[in-house]
Structure formats: C-alpha cells, structure tokens
C-alpha cells in the first residue's frame, strides 16, 4: 500500500462524510482530512485508489519535485521613495499594514534581526518540527522587505512564518508543500476569513496540477496569493505556483525600469544574459535589483539582493496596503485593483530590451503602486471592476467622482462607454441598462475611462463592468472589450489602460 493525496468531486459527494465513506468502501483508509475541499491523504493500493468513486485528481504523497527559492547575490529603500529615487523619508504610505496579515512560505526567519524588533511575527508552521529559524537567509531577506522596521513596505502587518525549506535549492515532496499550505488555510479560516489576507510564495517548483489546484483554492478562499515568476529564463507556465492564472505572479525590473533577468544561481557574472520567467501568466513587475534587506549573519547585518523573490515580497507588502485601503474587497478584487492601478504607469515606464525573448505583448505591463498620504484623485473608487450585472438588469453605481475639486471631467474618447452605459458627470452616477442588449455580448467585461484635472494634474480612472447570464463566475474567463463608437463595434483587448496612481515604488502576470 502507498500514501496518496486525492481530491473528490463535489458534484458526486455533498460533504466530507460522503467522501470518506467512498474511500473506505473502496478498501482504502483515510490518514488525514485536509481543509482544502474534499481533499484527503489516504492509504491504498493502486486498485483501491482506482475504485474510489468521484476522484478528480490524485498524486502520490511522496512525489518528489525540485524546488528553488529565487537565489540572489551577496537599495530598495531609496527606490521606494519616488521615481527619482529621492530619500526614503518622502515615502509616506496611506497605510502601513496595521491589522493586515501575510503568510510567508519560505526558509524561515531570523527573528532576532533588528528589522523585526517590535514587529508582529507569528511562527505558524514548520516542516522541521519546532525549528522556525532561517539558516539560508532567503526568508529573512524577503520578510524584511515586507514588515521590516526600516525596509518593510507594510511594517505594521503581522507576518506568519511558514518554514517549508531548509535550503535554497533541493527536492521536496508534494505532500510537504500541501501540508504547509493547508496550515495557512486553517489559520485563515479561523481568523476572520471574510477579510482578505496575503500569501507570499517566493519560490518555484516544476509544474504540478495537484499543487496548482490547491494554490488556486487558497486564492479563491479570500487569500491574495503573490508568487515569484522565477529566474529560469523559460516559460512561467512550466512552473508552480507561478503559472497559476488566478494569483499574482511577479517579475522584476531594475532602477531604470528595465525588465530584468535572473537565473536560479547566485549572481556572479553581470555580463551574462539572464531572463525573468515569461508568459501569459506574468501579471506585475516590481523592483528586483540591489534590494537592501536583512542578513542572517548578525542582528544588525545587511546585504543587497536581486531576484523575482524580492520583487514578490514588495508586491506582497503593497497588497496588504490595498487591503487596508479597501477592507471589504475580496482577494480577486484586490488583485484587480493592484494590476489596473499600476498598468498605465507600467505601460509607459517599463522597458523591454529588444534582446529579451519576449515582448510587452506577452505580459501584463503593470508596476505595483500604493496610495500615499494626501494623494489626490478624480475619484474615491480605484480603477477596476465597479459592477457585475446580470443580463436583463438595470443597475446604477456612484463612481464617487471628486466633484468638488475635479474640473474638465469627461469620458475619454479612446475608451468610451458602450450605448447601454451612461455616466452623469454632474453626479458621478453610472447607469447600466442591459434590458435590450445583444445576448452575444454576454458574458463579457467592458471597459471605459473617466478623466479630469485636480490641482493642475490630468488624471484618469479606468473602470470595467462585467456582464453575465446566470452567475458572475462566468466572468472568470470572459473576454474584455473596448467599445468603438466610430464603427459601433466592440474591440477585444488584452491590456487595460488605467489611472496613474503615484507610486513610491514599482512592480506585473497571469
């Protein structure tokens, strides 16, 4: 007999009781019931496994996969300040992560480092018994850019230390990874699951469907999963978790916004060509070169690091701020805000060298942004989806335009509203009337933009409305469109154009 991880079909089994009955009826035994939906560790023969009713996926628990944290060489602080890299004292985020939670699944943490003094750290789970320490340095480095006293993007958040690895590169079983991720889900469900939290996964392993499906389930459970794209120079979809479409996968750029390239070995020869993982699953870019971070050699030791793992730590910290800004939004909505708010900035600033094996068309050209104290805007609503509307409905939505201070408000000509949408610019009310819309347009996601001038600055917010037939779940794979009012047709789009939200730092995916 052998140990397997299996997931059963929810359309066949109504609950865990039914699922476990099917397992025992086949002669197998349940070793562990996971928090993941209808997921179990079982002991069975191959014949018993094959006879369990309703199994939709399975893998041997001890299946070994090669894994690598995104190794870096032996300062993001100044780069967090402004595009001109002014002193970091000008970086004044609207939120610093207070009350937020981030699960860092990595090599542990050197908690005695001065960057973590007074910070909130919870040792949640270790693959090594009671050992939560970091002998590799990777988890400490990434953790310091998330919650570090001087280096952390969201220094007042709570970091939940999930130690999964004890080396930078090596082998691990799928079962060990699933056990760690299940511990994250258990903790999240027990601690206000209606509030979104962040999971940072700064590593890659060979693509595995079972693992990818569990990571997608984490993301669907109101957890904003942020993963490093990896430094392998090959398609991101060949890797887990980076290739999971629903999560945020992060690439890296340098101080000049050049899309960078790294390998899974230490940076030793800067003349060598290195490439960030690429593919349709790359969502957002963040600074990933010469990041100042905590070092494990002493409590006051520092180093600089480069890699998509460092970029993913910055994005994870920023995600906590966006959750603080919009605490009622789900994990999917938070992702939408992060990507869309950073798209116009990324579209104009990111540089794709002609020698790279991919172009800006292959990725989502967004860089991570945050809201600053005193930041002005034409609207209190961030760019992104403002409504999901069922075919046949008529719904209104207040776009919360800054009517007191914004002038020259207008619907932008290259992103107009379609005929079944209207915006009253004197009140800021959007009306969506789908009572007579062509059914062939549903499901679909339709974009439009509003511009205005505040304090002498022209600003744009770009919004979208999703149309569905029966359930808004249809929008997960729906096509996105702009309306062409000259030809009265709908043009399919790959990228959004959205508002420039001043960014103290920058970051892109699926």
Helix content: 10-25%
CATH architecture designation of the largest domain = 3-Layer(aba) Sandwich
Radius of gyration: 23 Å
Biggest beta sheet summary: 7 strands, parallel
Q: How many strands?
A: 26
CATH class of the largest domain: Alpha Beta
Domain count: the total is 3
User: Remind me, CATH topology of the largest domain?
Assistant: Rossmann fold
Instruction: List the strand order in the largest sheet.
Output: 7-8-6-10-12-14-15
At the fourth level of CATH, the homologous superfamily of the largest domain is: Peptidase S8/S53 domain
Report strand %.
25-35%
Task: Indicate the overall shape.
Answer: globular
Structural topology:
Layout: E1 2-8, H1 16-25, E2 29-33, E3 39-44, H2 46-51, E4 55-60, E5 64-69, H3 76-79, E6 101-106, E7 120-126, H4 138-147, E8 158-163, E9 169-173, H5 174-190, E10 197-201, E11 203-206, H6 209-220, E12 223-228, E13 239-240, E14 248-253, E15 284-287, E16 291-294, E17 302-305, H7 308-325, H8 331-341, H9 343-349, E18 384-390, E19 394-398, E20 407-411, E21 421-424, E22 429-433, E23 444-454, E24 457-468, E25 480-484, E26 489-493
Parallel strand pairs: 6-8, 6-10, 7-8, 10-12, 12-14, 14-15, 18-24, 23-25
Antiparallel strand pairs: 1-3, 1-4, 2-3, 5-9, 5-11, 11-13, 16-17, 19-22, 20-23, 21-22, 23-24, 25-26
Helix pairs in contact: 4-7, 5-6, 7-8
What does this structure look like?
The chain is an alpha/beta fold. It folds into 3 domains: 2-61, Peptidase S8 propeptide/proteinase inhibitor I9 (Alpha-Beta Plaits, 2-Layer Sandwich), CATH 3.30.70.80; 68-362, Rossmann fold; 384-493, Immunoglobulin-like. The chain is built from 9 helices and 26 strands. The chain has helices spanning 16-25, 46-51, 76-79, 138-147, 174-190, 209-220, 308-325, 331-341, 343-349, and strands at residues 2-8, 29-33, 39-44, 55-60, 64-69, 101-106, 120-126, 158-163, 169-173, 197-201, 203-206, 223-228, 239-240, 248-253, 284-287, 291-294, 302-305, 384-390, 394-398, 407-411, 421-424, 429-433, 444-454, 457-468, 480-484, 489-493. The strands form 6 sheets. It has a 7-stranded parallel sheet, sandwiched between helices. Strands 18, 20, 23, 24, 25 and 26 form a 6-stranded mixed sheet that branches. Strand 7, helix 4 and strand 8 (158-163) form a beta-alpha-beta unit. Helix 5 (174-190) runs parallel beside helix 6 (209-220) and helix 7 (308-325) crosses helix 8 (331-341).
